[in-house]
């Protein structure tokens, strides 16, 4: 495993001609979905932005970092801005379905979650929600490295502008961090990186 982590670096210059295959993307998505999260809630969404025009707009509000447009895939990790009783109900319904149980059998857990979510101070809750996607980003990076796929973890972007461009507010989402995924360029520009 360490050999993969030694191979990895935060790739700045991607090879624009190389695309991550659909099956490798599925593996990376599964690595994200297998990620641990506080209370198991996984209160975030990962957007895979494919539209070139949108990626150009995002690059302009990301200090013009080339990874935004040049990586094969751009995964934007967005935290829920709140976790409401409705979210708890949906979470419990999904759990019941996956465990072959009736939602009523998970009532104690549901009540516990609702009490917890309704008593956390709003700012602390937001900060707690925003921490969760980083764990998934880490899992994505490690899994990708084991597949010799590069990832640049990023938070050098204007979150307010991303929210506007991607219409995230109405979806109850806030952009937190990014995984730009693809293959490192082996051109001369890359030789400035010691690895
Ligand atoms: C949360 C986070 C945000 C980062 N944001 C950026 C970024 O916006 N642009 C960038 O080029 N690198 C970004 N990086 C990469 C770091 O600069 C890089 O990981 C660090 O310098 C160590 O280098 P290495 O990962 O190549 O070993 C970020 C890393 C993390 C963990």
What does this structure look like?
- Helix content is 47%, strand content 15%.
- It starts with a helix and ends in a 13-residue tail after the last strand.
- A four-stranded antiparallel sheet has the order 1-2-4-3, sandwiched between helices.
- The model has no long low-confidence stretch (mean pLDDT 95).
- It has 195 residues and is α+β, with helices and mostly antiparallel strands.
- It has eight helices and four strands.
- The chain binds flavin mononucleotide.
- The site of flavin mononucleotide has 10 residues, from strand 3.
Mean pLDDT score: 95
- Which consecutive residue ranges, at least 5 long each, have pLDDT under 50? none
Q: Give the strand order of the largest sheet, numbering strands 1, 2, ... along the chain.
A: 1-2-4-3
What does the largest sheet look like? 4 strands, antiparallel
The small-molecule ligands in this entry are:
flavin mononucleotide
Choose one word for the global shape.
globular
Distance between the termini: 17 Å
Tally of helical segments: 8
Quote the beta fraction: 5-15%
- Could you state the order of secondary-structure elements as H and E? HHEHHEHHHEHE
Report the radius of gyration as a whole number of Å.
18 Å
Helices and strands: which structural class? Answer: alpha+beta
The count of DSSP E runs of length 2 or more, i.e. the number of strands, is 4
- Estimated helix fraction: 40-55%
């Amino acid at each position: 495993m360490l050999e993969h982590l030694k191979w990895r670096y935060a790739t700045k210059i991607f090879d624009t001609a190389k695309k991550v295959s659909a099956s490798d993307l599925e593996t990376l998505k599964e690595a994200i979905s297998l990620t641990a999260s506080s209370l198991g809630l996984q209160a975030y969404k990962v957007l895979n932005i494919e539209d070139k025009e949108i990626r150009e707009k995002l690059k302009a509000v990301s200090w013009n970092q080339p990874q935004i447009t040049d990586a094969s895939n751009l995964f934007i990790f967005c935290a829920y801005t709140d976790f409401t009783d409705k979210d708890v109900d949906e979470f419990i319904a999904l759990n019941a379905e996956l465990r072959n149980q009736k939602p009523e059998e998970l009532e104690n857990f549901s009540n516990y979650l609702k009490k917890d979510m309704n008593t956390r101070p709003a700012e602390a809750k937001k900060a707690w929600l925003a921490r969760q996607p980083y764990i998934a980003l880490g899992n994505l990076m490690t899994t990708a490295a084991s597949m010799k796929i590069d990832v640049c973890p990023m938070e050098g972007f204007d979150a307010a502008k991303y929210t506007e461009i991607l219409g995230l507010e109405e979806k109850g989402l806030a952009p937190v961090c990014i995984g730009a995924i693809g293959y490192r360029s082996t051109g001369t520009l890359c030789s400035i990186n010691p690895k």
